[in-house]
Each structure stands twice: as structure tokens, then as C-alpha cells.
Amino acid sequence: IVPTTKKSVVALETSAALKYRNFAENDPSLFAPGSLSIPRAQVLSKCQVPVSYYREHFGRALPQGPLCAISVAHKLMYFHIPKSGSSTSRTVFHQEFKAEDNQFCPPARPGYQDFKKTAIVRSPLSRFYAGYDEAFARVLNQLESGRGDALPAWLHGPWRGLPTFKDYEKIFDTDESLRRFESFVATWDGRTVFNDHLAFQTPLLSNPQTGIPYAMDYIGETSRMVEAWDDIGKLVDKEVDHNISSMRGRSFPRRFNMTRVSIATQQRICRLAALDYCCLNFPLPDACLPENSPPGYQIHCQWVENKDLNQSGGVKSKHIEPFIG
């Protein structure tokens, strides 16, 4: 999504998630992604996802809601976020907390209101690379086996000539695989989620009806997986075995050379994923920093006044929105 004008305010639609406008550098409402010194779960609680804009990120590919694991013994709940260490985390949660998978997260039925809610998230750019690989592989495998829907028309360009995953394997880590990745990024609107590995993380941790984040007790990150599970264990006075929490999940070689991804492509990914950068308090990579981005494409977060998040007895408060200007 890119602005089409340089007027002071450009709204893509009434419910648009991102605002584009010129701004003063000393605007006190603006701050850098990753700069807040409060826990990540608290940052998330200050956001509200525009439901109509991000509708498909809430569960079109996961029609029954995001998968979670629940430990009844420890009154603990873990939200699985695809491509955010979810394979390792499921192993830890099952083995260390005797948890079972649940398709509805959080469950609507009584008895779970006092369960601690946890999740582990990943830096958006790194996760986008992994999510693209996974989505591409799964869709091609489904097409080869005759399962799944036909590709959306707009994907015919980036994936033309690759009818099967075996055909895709022949161009791994080549200029052609990189060209196709960058073509996909340039084409994707950031809203169409035809595979759940492309869904952003913030909507998966939010109510799909209201866009209000669930009241999370802890959110860790994949770069500190062992420490994250130690922190989750402390919530319920449980010591977690590091031999389990340090395991790597399923690992596949990257299908394109990440070090050769153009700066322009990295910047577009960051703009598309600005919601996660702001609401999950991740710092921008160097390529996406405002000083390295042209005017009109610089990513900031913004405190916006007078929005009722309905989480504290209807108390009106500031909330966080991505801001690109």
C-alpha cells in the first residue's frame, strides 16, 4: 500500500489502518517502533486493529480461530503464531505444562477467564521471509495434489511457470527465486491472506469482532526463546527444562538469498507490517529507518487520543497506530 498523493492527510478508506501525511519532526505524538520501555504485552494492549481493513488476518485461513494450547493443570494458555517459533513452543507447552491443543483461542466457554495468556512473536521482516517460504511451498503442494483453491489472479505473475513444488526446488537460492519474491512483495496488498503464514501477528492476538487485543499476560520473542519460556514458567511457578526450550523447531533452507533483497523491497515489507512493528514494539531494521527512507514512506508510531479500548471499564485512553509520513 503506497500513498498516491502528498496532501497533508491521505486516507485509503474510512477504516484504513495506516495514515499518510506530512508531519513536523517535533510532533510529540510520534515515536519510533521498538522505543517503548514497557512490556510487550502492555504495548499490545494500547492498540486496536481496524477490523474491516485487516479482516482476513484474523482468520480467513484459520476459520475457527487461531490455534492455542491450554494447560488446565497450570491454568495457562499459549497462542500459536505461525512462523514465530510455534513448533518448538508446542513441544515445550505439551511436555513441560501437559497442555492440549485447542482450536478456539481463547475458548468462549466458562472456566478459562483466570488462565494466564501467553504468546511468542517474531521480528516482522524475518517472519515475513519465513512466512512467504511456507505459504509458497504449501500452496504449490496443494495445487500439485489437487487440493485447495485456485491461485488468486494477482498471483499468477509471481508464481507463473511453477505448477509444482518440485519445479520450485529447481530455482532455490537463484536470481530467479529472488526476482519472484520481490515481485510478490510488490504485488501483495497486505490484506489478502490466502495462507495463514502471511497473517500478521497483532490480529491473531486480537478479538476478530472488535479488533481489541486479548488481555495478554506475557509476550516473548523468538530471539530470546529460552528466556521467554523461563518467563512463562515463572507465571505459574514452573521451572522449564532448557534442553527442551532451546530446541529448534522445523527448519528449512531459505528459498532465496535474504542478503540480496533490495532496500526498496525491505522497506515495503516494513510498511505492510507496520502494525506489528508498532503494536509489538519491534525496532525497525536499518533499511527501514526513517533516515534511510524517502519522505512519505517513513514509518513511525503515533499516540492517538480519545479512543475507547473497552478494556478498563470503558476508560478513554490514548492508543497506538502505525503512521507513515
Keywords:
single chain; 325 residues; alpha/beta; 4-stranded mixed beta sheet; 29% helix; globular; disordered N terminus
> H/E order of the elements?
EEHEEHEEHHHHEHHHHEE
Largest sheet, in brief, is: 5 strands, mixed
Structural category is alpha/beta
The parts where pLDDT drops under 50 for at least 5 residues are: 1-24
- Major β-sheet strand ordering: 5-3-4-6-7
Mean pLDDT across every amino acid position: 81
What does this structure look like?
With 325 residues, this protein is of the alpha/beta class. 29% of the residues lie in helices and 14% in strands. It has ten helices and nine strands. The chain has helices at 40-45, 86-97, 124-145, 165-169, 175-187, 201-204, 225-235, 242-245, 263-272, 274-279; strands spanning 19-20, 30-31, 68-71, 76-79, 100-102, 116-121, 218-221, 299-308, 316-324. The chain has a five-stranded mixed beta sheet, covered by helices on one side. Strands 1-9-8-2 form a four-stranded mixed beta sheet. A hairpin with a 7-residue loop joins strand 8 and strand 9. It is globular and about 50 Å long. The model is unreliable at 1-24 (pLDDT under 50).
Quick structural overview:
By secondary structure, the protein is of the alpha/beta class.
Which secondary structure elements does this structure contain, and how are they paired or packed?
Layout: E1 19-20, E2 30-31, H1 40-45, E3 68-71, E4 76-79, H2 86-97, E5 100-102, E6 116-121, H3 124-145, H4 165-169, H5 175-187, H6 201-204, E7 218-221, H7 225-235, H8 242-245, H9 263-272, H10 274-279, E8 299-308, E9 316-324
Parallel strand pairs: 1-9, 4-6, 6-7
Antiparallel strand pairs: 2-8, 3-4, 3-5, 8-9
